[in-house]
């Protein structure tokens, strides 16, 4: 193993799966023993009660959970949504959620824009985002992790994506949710070496990782959809990550176009198999 982190304690372990409402009924029995942890977007569950709320609670009592937020909009020009953060904090405490992560992007100004937009890769943006992350961590009373995001245009960039991500994580002193698929998508769309980008990230800040599928719009344009199976180059990049950094928890994202749940669990098994192979190599 050539990595820099060979032993570390993580909040969750093994191979995980994003919990979606369309999957809940099928996963109630099938997930036992095949999913080590689950992930949800807190905005989709805050304030949900009744039968659905009880069903969700049954999952959080059975499985370790992490949360991956959708709407904090950490890079937004609008004021930080501190009311949302307080609601998220209460939700995390109520359900014993072990980690909270968000996208290194923004999705709002005067209102929500219903898409994840890229933050300009500039020194000014680094300072702005880092200050907002520190404030979010103060409100939550816990560290958060930011996910390296997919993007389709680098508007106003004054530094590379890798330099920007590293600078934000360092100045904010927060953790990294490593999205392996996003590295692959961006490497095709923006013409860089995905393995070199991966190895330039701070492995000591990784809390867990995402893998997902995407859509090939053209030979040089991939759209990050989370609506298809993970492809071989993404699995290979995950293997590279384990070899370089050591094995870390990894979760399969699938947001729509769901196959039979057994197919999703087979992909979770693939994660676990790669983890076992890397741990013994």
What can you tell me about this protein's structure?
The longest helix is centred in the last third of the chain and has 20 residues, at 261-280. The protein has an 8-stranded parallel β-barrel. The protein has a two-stranded antiparallel ribbon with strand order 5-6. The chain has helices at residues 24-30, 50-62, 82-95, 123-140, 161-172, 180-190, 194-199, 232-245, 261-280, and strands at residues 15-18, 37-40, 65-68, 100-103, 106-108, 112-117, 145-147, 175-179, 206-211, 215-218, 221-223, 250-252. It has 281 residues and is an alpha/beta fold. Helix 4 (123-140) packs parallel to helix 5 (161-172). The chain has one domain: Divalent-metal-dependent TIM barrel enzymes (TIM Barrel, Alpha-Beta Barrel). The chain is 41% helix and 17% strand. It is built from 9 helices and 12 strands.
Summarize the structure.
By secondary structure, this protein is α/β, with parallel strands linked by helices. It has helices at residues 24-30, 50-62, 82-95, 123-140, 161-172, 180-190, 194-199, 232-245, 261-280; strands at residues 15-18, 37-40, 65-68, 100-103, 106-108, 112-117, 145-147, 175-179, 206-211, 215-218, 221-223, 250-252.
